[in-house]
Design goal:
16 helices; binds 1-deoxynojirimycin; 8-stranded parallel sheet; about 15% strand; 6-stranded antiparallel sheet; binds calcium ion; about 25% helix; alpha/beta; single chain; about 575 residues
């Protein structure tokens, strides 16, 4: 195996550009207590097609995002992760990149990016780009060259193999359906693609690929990007011996047998690649966020690197698979906390059913959305919001196959309806098209936008939006919420999730009733060194507790939340 290396010229370049304005944008490395900047920041994912359309073509764009920086600032956002906006044939809505160093015309220009970055800086909002590291588009010049002949300069930039007779090299399956091997008639070999055939996998065993990819991150850091969310990191490497993946009982939505991706996912070499990317990131004080789908906390921990030299922020996506349950969350956070790493809290993104639907019970979804916000915005760690979650945006899945835009929805219909439903335009107001566009929106907006929208919710003190704003304001200023230890309380309570965030001489008490019936909770905080008998209210969903609550007994309404300061 060839080893991953980082370009040796990087260090020299750092000196040359140390005084550039873009680099200066990121030099506030840490606060006075030496917390890296991302630990106290709140991140927000923007799906650029759907956030704000500035030119009436029905598709969101960079100018649209720039026009909403004030909104993001008021909400309490410090960094935005923008899903891919690079030139792309859009087979996978931008996750098929044909040029890593430009902006797709549909989203604007590099000058628009520069303006967004500059104004973002003025607002205290950093820009995180989405780096599709596993694969390119089949239209990327690298692949065009690679497929041109077996001796092409870039042939070895992708994974080409001989078939077995008339069959593909082995049984590996693409996660978007069918074999992971695509026959190429011209050069009479197969190329490997973990996703669509139009997304050929890069060969990360080739040092030239590693240099090109690391160099791409550097190019953007120098332009002012503050970090990357790394797409599909698990699948960077495959077994060079092409062993078959074990087949499991059952079928997926595409009719393929279920397999364990033993030889196509989470190979140890992934960590070498991440270390290389991190070496570059560190020179620019940039952050690397990982799309890290893991089965357990131990697995998640490996992505930080044994010497904390890989991802600073591997996402805890296990949270997105959990039921709304106090004991389940408690057990999970116990494990996360004992891992000792800095958690990255995520409850939604552009690939999964919206959190409002997923945790909701169909009757109390708004209250449950507030409970989830109270939980993940007061836990230790860095939260990443998904646009629209803060106003209770809901999935709007297509009803007919012919309306589906996401190819996996057409392929897997009706079991898999695709991801259009969680990617609908941001709901800004109750005007036509929710204020997102003056044209025809690219994706259908649910009728619920009439009540779930920024403008109306901003006026309603009890809205989900104002709850998010209050929580974010609190977590930005409260030392215990920023850095305090996580201490679970009442660990046998089946319905109420309670914990302390404890700083020195002070703590924040959080109690969330995760049930549809009233609950009284009793605390004994003497063991935690807290003598006070009452808590001073910081934030609550209950007017009865507006000023304070007795620690001996707090009566919580169904789905009620209490957050108070104790000494
Ligand atoms: C994960 C991205 O989040 C998803 O949207 C995309 O389809 C795949 N990776 C492939 O890039
Ligand atoms: Ca547009």
């Amino acid at each position: 195996m060839r080893h991953v290396r980082v370009s040796g010229i990087l260090i020299g370049i750092v000196f040359l550009i140390a005084s550039s304005p873009a680099l200066r944008a990121q030099t506030a490395a840490s606060d006075s207590q030496a917390h890296p900047w991302y630990q106290h920041a709140v991140f927000y994912e923007i799906y650029p097609r759907s956030f704000m359309d500035s030119n009436g073509d029905g598709i969101g764009d960079l100018k649209g995002i720039t026009s909403q920086l004030d909104y993001l600032k008021t909400l309490g956002i410090d960094a935005i992760w923008i899903a891919p906006c690079f030139p792309s044939p859009q087979v996978d809505f931008g996750y098929d990149v044909s040029d890593y160093q430009n902006i797709d015309k549909m989203y604007g220009t590099l000058a628009d990016f520069d303006k967004l970055q500059k104004l973002g800086q003025d607002h205290g909002i950093k820009i995180i780009f989405d780096f599709v590291v596993n694969h390119t588009s089949d239209q990327h010049p690298w692949f065009v060259d690679s497929r041109s002949s077996r001796t092409a300069d870039k042939r070895d930039w992708y994974v080409w193999r001989e078939g077995k007779g008339t069959n593909p090299p082995n049984n590996w399956l693409a996660v978007f359906g069918g074999s992971a091997w695509q026959w190429d008639e011209k050069t009479k070999q197969y190329y490997y693609h973990y996703f669509y055939p139009q997304q050929p996998d890069l060969n990360w065993r080739n040092p030239a690929v590693v240099r090109a990819m690391n160099g791409t991150t550097e190019w953007w850091y120098r332009r002012g990007v503050a970090g990357f969310r790394l797409d599909a990191v698990d699948s960077l490497f495959e077994d060079p011996n092409l062993q078959d993946d074990p087949v499991l009982p059952g079928q997926n939505a595409y009719g393929d047998p279920l397999v364990e991706h033993k030889y196509t996912q989470k190979l140890p070499e992934v960590h070498l690649a991440l270390k290389g990317l991190r070496t570059v990131a560190d020179q620019y004080n940039a952050v690397l966020i990982g799309e890290t789908w893991t089965d357990n906390v131990a697995q998640l921990r490996t992505y930080y690197g044994s010497a904390h030299d890989e991802l600073q922020m591997p996402m805890d996506l296990m949270l997105t698979k959990m039921k709304f349950s106090a004991p389940a969350f408690r057990e999970h956070f116990k494990q996360v906390d004992s891992s000792g790493e800095w958690p990255v809290l995520v409850i939604g993104n552009h690939d999964i059913l919206r959190s409002w639907n997923r945790y909701g019970d169909g009757q109390h979804n708004d209250q449950i959305a507030k409970d989830m916000a109270a939980m993940y915005l007061t836990l230790r760690g860095t939260p990443i919001l998904y646009y629209g979650e803060e106003i209770g945006m809901q999935n709007n899945d297509p009803q007919r196959r012919e309306d589906v835009k996401d190819p996996i929805g057409r392929l897997g219909w009706p079991k898999e309806k695709g991801r259009d439903g969680e990617r609908t335009p941001m709901q800004w107001n109750d005007e036509p098209n929710a204020g997102f566009t003056t044209g025809i929106p690219w994706n259908a907006i649910p009728v619920t936008y009439k009540t779930y929208n920024v403008e109306d919710e901003a006026k309603d003190p009890n809205s989900i939006l104002n709850w998010y704003k209050a929580l974010l304001a609190l977590r930005h200023t409260d030392p215990a919420l920023l850095d305090g230890a996580y201490i679970p309380l009442n660990e046998s309570d089946a319905e109420v999730l309670s914990y302390l965030r404890k700083a020195s001489g002070y703590a924040v008490l959080v109690a969330i009733n995760m049930s549809a019936v009233p609950r009284a909770v009793h605390f004994d905080l003497a063991r935690q060194g807290i003598a006070a008998t009452s808590a001073k209210t910081l934030l609550t969903t209950q007017s009865s507790l507006k000023e304070k609550a007795s620690i001996a007994q707090i009566s919580l309404e169904p789905y009620g939340v209490y957050i108070g300061a104790v000494k």
